[in-house]
Amino acid sequence: MLAYLIRRLFAAAVMLVVIVMVVFGIFFLVPKWAGVDVATSFVGKQADPAAVEAIREKLGLSDPIFQQVWEFFKGIFVGRTYAAGGDVTHCAAPCFGYSFRSEQAIWPVLTDRFPVTLSLALGAAVLWLVFGVAAGVLSALKRGTLWDRTAMVVALGGVSLPIYFTGLLSLAIFSYGLGLIDAQYVPLEDSFSGWFGGMILPWITLAFLYAAMYARITRATMLEILGEDYIRTARAKGLKEQTVIGKHAMRSTMTPILTMLGMDLGALIGGAILTETTFSLPGLGQAVLNAIKNQDLPVILGVTLITSVAVLIANLLVDILYAVIDPRVRLS
Amino acid sequence: MTAPLHEPTADAAPNAHEEAEVASAKAKDVQGRSLGRIAWERLKRDKLALTGGTVVVLLIVIALLAPVLTHLIGQDPDAYHENLIDPLFGTPKGSLGGLGGDHLLGVEPVNGRDILARILYGAQISLLVGFLSAVVAVALGTVLGILAGFFGGWVDSVISRVMDGLLAFPQLLFIIALVSVMPNSMLGLSGSAVRVFVMILVIGFFGWPYIGRVVRGQTLSLREREYVDAARSLGAGRFYILFKELLPNLVAPIIVYSTMMIPTNILTEAALSFLGVGVKPPTASWGQMLSNAIDYYDSDPMYMVVPGVAIFITVLAFNLFGDGVRDALDPKASR
User: Fold this and answer.
1) Cβ separation of A168 and B308 shorter than 8 Å?
2) How far is B267 from chain A (nearest CA, A)?
3) Domain annotation covers residue B228
4) What is the pLDDT of residues A134-164, one digit of tens each?
5) CATH number for B279
6) DSSP letter at B61?
7) B297 touches chain A (CB under 8 A)
8) Residues of chain B contacting residue A295, judged by C-beta atoms under 8 Å apart
9) Engineering a disulfide at A268: which of A121, A166, A288, B116 sits with its beta carbon 3.0 to 4.6 angstroms away?
10) What is the pLDDT of residue B1?
11) How far is A210 from A220, CA to CA, in rounded Å?
12) Are A153 and A194 contained in the same domain?
């Protein structure tokens, strides 16, 4: 178990380095091939050559890419000082870069916005797991009935609806039309009811999409598993149907569901870009989208790194959970 | 085993002679039907899938004929009709977003462009990106998956690691980042054409591991089959076995996964355009229309409903058709 953990953590670390290098590659090498000067994207195209040169020196943009990656990682642990001539900017210890566009370090931006995205992702995940899996299991058990058909039609509709459409629709109906919900984000520290009220529409909209996906997959997996020999054996032993389904079938059904949950949750925590844009939630997704529009590379790099860490951690947790849930899985 | 027992024949007369004829025809049928034929017979009986397929065909026709259709309704997707806009609020005059008369689905707020014409042209972008990125993904996924499965060893290790890595990547983020750093003109293309080209490549690139994994898994089990041994003992070369023996047996899963990939890709394109990194204005795109509609969700809800419903119908049709194709090609299905 410990050896497995260490190996997985090592693989995750390698993956992180690769991701950071790819991000650097995208933002430094691609423009280079395309004949665009990276430094100009930091100061704006109309800036004078001296300013461009200064930013290039300050950020070490002409250094080899490996050295830039190294500087980036070093900054996370010991902080970083950007200096060009007399102009010195210091970025304190967990330095995930410094945005020269908005004149601020990235780390506070990340910590500011992370709780918003996390509460969105976790709240929605609880909803979609409960409703999606329940609907899928019920459909599988009542295969061919009216319930099954209805649930699957709704689910198919759900996976065909883009979140930014259902989001706008729910805003138009519940917030503007009926005036039931004030769709404004309020931080949790300020007011619980305000936070809850602001999050309820994003949660439901996001959860609906995923619940539809999970219901479809749960149903298919459950049906497959119900046809397996060990289920027949369990029934032949005279186990109660409750035990057969709840204990034997559910365990194997949850394995692929958990895999999906790990990936989906990781991806969402890294920025539910579409949901946050639709509902104007000040989360990581919105930050990174704005950064991309402004070509604010340090922010993109920071958020991408956080996202990747989230995806990797989620996947790792899921792999460990496998062993707990499904006795057939042994970590080695 | 899959012969339909009560298939409606043209004239099912209770005549012994005819019945015998039908029976022998059926017997011949059972021997001679290829996988494609069996799948088609099954698909034909799946009403939902057929409906989906019909809508898909219609959409393709609409996309191809968009210039003709807009000409027929007498509208230009880029023409402004500011006289139809309420100057105070910037929203269309009249009810339901200016719907009716010349503008069957109403006009856009502020500039008054005809929504129907823009929806028709938007179909071009959606389908083009959806199909071609699926082609890119299928081509890459099939070749790399089959190589990984067939050769094993370090080839498999490298390709599998790359696939795992790509699947763990925060994809949407990378796609947005990549599309946004692309220059405004390249390879003789400019404006929206560059964006469309880049979207096709990037969406396709992030999609190939899904197909690659399946193809690799199938290849792993297929390469141990007797017919591969037989081909080998007859002196067939590696590439002959790969492309003449294995590939035909992989067609079914590849078709299933590509039909399921198209709607996902259409949604991704719409999402990118929604986020402002897709096609550039004034080129019409459904995602972009929805993105503009955010500001008018309370004052002009029609503007949001029309492109949203267009995306919904398109994706739903592809999903219905894809589900049907999957069921039809599934060897385990016992219908």
Assistant:
1) yes
2) 7
3) yes
4) 999 999 888 888 888 888 888 888 888 888 8
5) 1.10.3720.10
6) H
7) yes
8) 180-181
9) A121
10) 39
11) 15
12) yes
